[in-house]
Design brief:
Layout (H helix, E strand, L loop, with lengths): L4 E6 L8 E6 L2 E10 L2 E5 L8 E2 L4 E10 L3
Antiparallel strand pairs: 1-6, 2-3, 2-6, 3-4, 4-5
Amino acid sequence: LSDDLVVVRPQQNADDGQIVVARIEDEATVKRLHRRRGKIWLMPENENYDPIDGTDAEIIGLVKAVVREY
């Protein structure tokens, strides 16, 4: 939802399966990090979106919580 707040710990590394904030060129995205066969993939939680090749992505933070307003 657009009113959700994401709590992010700034860091440049993450483990497989963690949700990260990644920068690709001039845009940031929140995705689940997957490392498979030497490749990095940024996986969306929403099945309507395609995975993103994360080879050139820069991890800028680790998502620690989501605050949702009702």
